[in-house]
Design brief:
acyltransferase activity, transferring groups other than amino-acyl groups, globular, Aminopeptidase, two-stranded antiparallel ribbon, alpha+beta, N-acetyltransferase domain-containing protein, 4 helices, seven-stranded mixed β-sheet
Length: 184
Amino acid sequence: MIQTLTAAHFTDVISLGNLVHGDGYLNETSLAALYQKGISNEINANFVAHHDGKLIGFRLTYAPGNWQTDKWCTPHAWGIEAPKVCYFKCNTLAEPFRGAGIGGKLLSASIAATKRQGAIAGIGHLWKQSPNNSAVRYFTKAGATLIKEHPARWNNSKNHSDYVCVICGTDCQCTACEMLLIFK
């Protein structure tokens, strides 16, 4: 079951995020800030997935206009004005539920919400080293195109100074694939 993320889900979202992505990926403060970036015009673009009453996945998405491009973004290559683009921050699923279409359902829910917020496209940085490169594969299947690869995207981030990558440890060298999804 897919539903809108609320503060009542925070503890479970933090636990799952840190399990899948590494310790320090999320905490109460960071999740609260990420959550607020997903809300615009009283529409929330953040969603969770449940199975048998247990949280098994989540998608965090920033509303168009609620985020700023940075050195990891290539807006001149998008062909769309940045204020009309949402940002797909994170899609996370518990291991036993990957490959079952749940990530796509979470993405569809966020797309529907961000369209109502005024977005015509979304950009994300997909984790190239995800298991079997599933993040990039799923986003490509959804219709996204690769804009640019950004090596060591999550290394020494001031926003995640205590982050420990599940692959690299404290010196994360994982590549982020900047991908654009134009909405139909």
